[in-house]
TrEMBL record:
Protein name: Lipocalin-like domain-containing protein
Organism name: Hymenobacter aranciens
Annotated signal sequence range: 1-25
Keywords: Signal
């Protein structure tokens, strides 16, 4: 009796394995940009740096000060970024959900810092600069 290497059962099992791998791979939050209230919750939300990558996709080593940074986003359109050393920057932000961008304007400045929003869910926020560097934040 000759054993078939790819019997119908094995073909079906291989198909299910590939299908499950594809489903898991496509289940990522990348590209998912939900409503503006995900930025601030009911009143405000604190975001902490999870990971940073440069324009080539290489992970950037965070300093202690960078690891202690917090981005506070408020429902009224204000933000504050604090660092572990006690310093902070405050200003206003505008979020364009359709365009998937967010612009931060520090107090006393006319210059906006604009980022593409790659991911915005209740617990994840990924901002990408025009140069291609990305900052992945997690809700605290």
């Amino acid at each position: 009796m000759k054993t078939q290497l790819f019997s119908p059962f094995r073909q079906f099992a291989a198909f299910l394995l590939l299908l499950s791998l594809f489903t898991v791979a496509c289940g990522s939050d990348k590209g998912k940009v939900e409503g503006v209230n995900m930025l601030y919750g009911t009143d405000h939300k604190v975001w902490k740096t999870h990971k940073e990558v440069d324009a080539t996709g290489d992970k950037v080593k965070q300093t202690d000060a960078q690891e202690d940074q917090e981005l506070h986003i408020f429902a009224n359109g204000n933000y504050t970024m604090t660092n572990g050393g006690g310093g902070s920057v405050s200003g206003k932000y505008t979020f364009d959900q359709a365009g998937k961008t967010i612009a931060f304007t520090p107090e006393g400045s006319a210059t906006q810092n604009v980022f593409n929003v790659e991911t915005l869910t209740d617990d994840k926020l990924t901002l990408k600069s025009a140069a291609g560097a990305a900052l992945m934040l997690e809700a605290e």
